[in-house]
């Protein structure tokens, strides 16, 4: 049985926040699958370990420190704490160190695990690695959006924050310390793509770090679990869930609730008392204050209340917001701000209303209309991660990955790309570096120049160009490094994970140099990658071999695609290059199983001298392409990441 050590800032029996609840649920479900050790610090004088093995809780082990180390602090690594962590890890010999939060625990645990060559999984549960004000609310309690100027951050921290050692942190030192530690981590876990985007704004270099997006699980009330009955239970218009706090939107609710009650809407408050809100009786007459509740009862309480919608107006970019899942489980749509994972999930899955932070003057009207007319007809999502053991399976697979391949990168590096160009073309390294520099300075330059020089006309000539042009390699290398391009594959993977399609064969049509295919393969999918013959195919095969990725490659025009075989397919930036895009979509349709998913992008609008390889005359196709989906045997299901078309194959 593998052994996992969990590092957490506080255990669930000491305090009850999102991370603590997650840790409790994690132990309940993982105990018996793994031998678990919970490491935490709630005293400046020691480190505590509580072990769980085969459904039995072990004795508490206390490791004293030679000198006291404050809990939430800033500064250089503490050697005393580091030494104790090394001793603990050496004694326990865990297969993986899984850090749920570094607050109180400190980055010393990361360095101790690196010292003993133990793979590390690091959960980015909030923005503590970016700023000790972990929800990124500034001195005015407004989302700061991570200012580019450090002086702004330092002024904010000096105004609102002191840590456990009485110091006011300097943001440059804070980020340098945390980035160095996170760079040593084997694998990052984000709760949402939105969280990762904000982290990358602070730390762009983390784009190269292996990662997964694994949402929180939430506890479903057990069958027969006692639920208190409210004497005044019955339908209300809106429910506000959680205690009164700035990070939960109290400043917004202070002015919004009176406006809503003035429209005749009724509002229930789960988690706060009437004394927490400074409103007169004209407002209170439309409110119900139900006070605190046991965490396991929140879904049942909302079902009893039967609200038309839930107000979840967090002003910071929540990393996941488990409350949204609880609201959905109760069959209630949610109203959120256009920020963070809740907005991301509603945008992708539906189940709610997103309010623009830039137009608060419209909120009351929008909420009133939504509650009155739209909410009752709105379907509520049932995300796959809310199903029993979904999270367990993802972590089991993740641990296997980091244990078995702790040193293999998910994303290839630029030096690796340039080395492979040398292998497939035989070009000298100085020429390769120069060409790559030109492409990075002016994207698309190399392939545009080569195209104008060759001037291919017929279909065969175009195919031949892509087979032999080294310029196309430079173009593809730099395109696949773009943050937007990386976001595409991450978003597709997240979608497939939510839909429980990760075990179905996946087709990468027009795979180029194979980066996307390799990514999906590294996530455990059976990937088949198809493209034209020549340099790109040779490059893709060598890259997969270098990264130890299991990808089956095929050649378009030579190797037939199987019919009704793939559960999903991707086709990124291919259609604008081919004479008959609709025939490509038909080919993919034939290869997909019934209800299989196709994710594709197109750049029909980019033509002219800068994009000579994009066939002109179809500049407006992107706007109307979804309308022809039924003629091709598909149903359009919307978009991902703004540009990715989502089509589902319909077959009789």
UniProtKB/TrEMBL annotation:
Task: Spell out the SUPFAM superfamilies in the cross-references.
Answer: S-adenosyl-L-methionine-dependent methyltransferases (SSF53335), UDP-Glycosyltransferase/glycogen phosphorylase (SSF53756)
Superkingdom of origin organism = Bacteria
Q: What is this protein called?
A: Glycosyl transferase family 1 domain-containing protein
